[in-house]
Design goal:
The two termini are about 30 Å apart. This protein has 2 domains: about 5-280, Rossmann fold (3-Layer(aba) Sandwich); about 295-390, Alpha-Beta Plaits, CATH 3.30.70.20. It is built from 14 helices and 15 strands. The protein is an alpha/beta fold. It is globular and about 60 Å long. The structure holds iron/sulfur cluster (2 copies). One iron/sulfur cluster (SF4) binds near residues 341, 357, 358 and 361. One iron/sulfur cluster binds next to helix 12.
Length: about 400
C-alpha cells in the first residue's frame, strides 16, 4: 500500500496544475518506460462542458500528458467509454465538448475512436473472472487513471475505483448493473475490475468537485486540491478522498470491500500522506450527498419493526422520476436502463418502476437533468435520524 500525495491546486491554470503533477510524480517516485504504450483514462461520463464538473477537467489531462511527454513517453492515447452508446460519432462529440479534442491537438496525442473491445480474464476475481475491456485499455502497457472527485447516486463516491468502470464498453455497463443490482455486489465487481486494469498512476481532479446528485446531476464545489497514488495506492487514495468529503468506508461499499481484502486500511488516518502538510484543510464538512444515499432501513428502527421496514424497502427507496416538461425525448435514459424499464411515449420518457433496480443510470445519462431522484418522507426521516446517530 503506497502513500497518497495531496497538493493544493487552487485553479485550472496549466502551469499551476503542471507543477502540482510534477510534485505528485516526484513524491510518489513514479517511473515510466519511455517506450510504453500509455492510455490516459479521464472521466468523460457524458458529452458536456468542463464547467459542469461531471468530467475530468482538460487542464488536468493536459498537465499529466505534458509531464509524461517530458519523461520521454510518446505513445499516448486518451480513451474512455462514456455512458450510453459506444460509437465513433458519440466519442468524437464527447471529446469535442469535454475539451479532450483540443488537448489531444495541442499535445499531439491520439484520441481513441475505435470501438472494439475484448474479453480479458482475471482468474483471481472474487466475483468476476473476466471483463470485456475497451481495446486501448486491454492493449496498454500503462494505464493512467485521471478521475474526478464526485458523489454518486448509486455508489456514493465516484473517484479512482469507480472511474475504471469506463474501461467497459458502452452498453455492456448496464448489463453489469443488471447482473449485480445489489450495491455490495456491484462494489465487489468494481474492485475486481480495478485489480484487473491495475492503473500505474491514479490522479484525482478535485480542484472543483461535484456534490449532491452526482455523477452528472450535482453541483460544482470548489475544493482546490489534486491527489495521486501509484499502483495499489489507488484504494488508500479513494479512502482519503472519501474522508475529504465527509464519507467513511462504511458508506462507500467499494472501500469497505477494498479494506476487507486488505487493499487499504479501514481508517484514513492509517494512510501515509505526502505533499502539502495543510492539504487536509481543504476537507469539506458539509459536502452535499446524493438524495439517493442508501440507507440500512433497519438500522434506525426498533428491532420488532425491522422486518416490516425491510419488506417495505422497495416502496421507501429513492426512485427516478421524469419531469415531463423538461424531457426532450432523446431516449438516452432508455438506452442506458439495464432493466429495460423505460419507454418513450409521445417523445416523453416513461418509467415502469415495478422493474426498476434503482441504479440511477437514467438520471446519470439524461443530458437535460429531466430525471429527479424522488425520496419519500419516511426515507428523509430515517436519513436524518441516521445522520444524527452518526454525528
Ligand atoms: S429506470 Fe433508471 S434507476 Fe431504474 S433500472 Fe432503469 S436506469 Fe436504473
Ligand atoms: S428523460 Fe432525459 S434522457 Fe430520458 S428521454 Fe427525456 S431528456 Fe432524454
Amino acid at each position: 500500500m503506497g502513500p497518497v500525495s495531496l497538493i493544493k491546486t487552487e485553479r485550472y491554470d496549466l502551469p499551476q496544475v503542471q507543477e502540482a503533477v510534477r510534485r505528485h510524480l516526484d513524491l510518489l517516485h513514479f517511473r515510466i518506460d519511455p517506450a510504453a504504450k500509455v492510455v490516459v483514462k479521464p472521466n468523460l461520463i457524458m458529452r458536456c462542458r468542463p464547467e459542469r464538473t461531471a468530467t475530468t477537467n482538460p487542464v488536468v489531462a493536459e498537465a499529466v500528458i505534458r509531464t509524461i511527454q517530458g519523461l520521454g513517453v510518446s505513445d499516448i492515447t486518451i480513451a474512455d467509454s462514456p455512458g450510453g452508446l459506444y460509437t465513433p460519432q458519440v466519442l468524437a462529440a464527447n471529446y469535442e465538448q469535454t475539451g479532450m479534442k483540443a488537448v489531444a491537438e495541442r499535445c499531439g496525442v491520439k484520441l481513441n475512436l475505435s470501438c472494439g473491445s475484448r474479453v480479458v480474464r482475471y482468474e483471481e476475481g472474487q466475483l468476476c473472472r473476466a471483463f470485456d475491456l475497451i481495446d486501448p485499455v486491454a492493449d496498454a502497457d500503462v494505464v493512467i487513471n485521471l478521475c474526478k472527485l464526485k458523489t454518486h447516486c448509486m455508489t456514493t463516491l465516484s473517484c479512482g475505483i469507480k472511474n475504471l468502470f469506463g474501461c467497459i464498453p458502452g452498453l455492456l455497463k448496464p448489463q453489469l448493473h443488471y447482473r449485480f443490482p445489489d450495491g455490495q455486489q456491484f462494489a465487489r465487481m468494481l474492485v475486481d475490475l480495478s485489480l484487473l486494469v491495475k492503473p500505474s498512476l491514479t490522479l484525482v481532479d478535485a480542484v472543483d468537485a461535484m456534490e449532491g446528485d452526482g455523477p452528472t446531476g450535482g453541483s460544482r464545489r470548489h475544493i482546490g486540491l489534486t491527489a495521486a497514488a501509484v499502483e495499489d495506492g489507488l484504494y488508500s487514495l479513494d479512502l482519503v478522498m472519501a474522508h475529504l468529503i465527509g464519507l467513511g468506508p462504511e458508506q462507500v461499499p467499494m472501500l469497505a470491500d477494498a479494506a476487507g481484502r486488505g487493499l487499504c486500511p479501514s481508517r484514513w488516518e492509517e494512510v501515509a500522506l505526502v505533499g502539502d502538510s495543510d492539504a487536509l484543510s481543504c476537507a469539506v464538512a458539509d459536502f452535499a450527498m446524493p438524495a439517493s444515499k442508501t440507507l440500512d432501513f433497519t438500522g434506525n428502527v426498533p428491532r420488532p419493526l425491522a422486518g416490516l421496514i425491510r419488506r417495505l424497502e422497495p416502496r421507501l427507496a429513492p426512485r427516478p422520476q421524469v419531469r415531463e416538461k423538461d424531457c426532450i425525448g432523446c431516449g438516452r435514459c432508455a438506452e442506458s436502463c439495464p432493466a429495460k424499464t423505460i419507454s418513450l411515449r409521445n417523445r416523453k420518457a416513461k418509467i415502469d418502476l415495478s422493474n426498476c433496480i434503482h441504479c440511477f443510470c437514467c438520471h446519470e445519462m439524461c443530458p437535460v437533468k429531466a430525471i429527479d431522484i424522488k425520496t419519500t418522507r419516511i426515507f428523509r426521516f430515517l436519513s436524518k435520524s441516521r445522520s444524527r446517530g452518526n454525528s
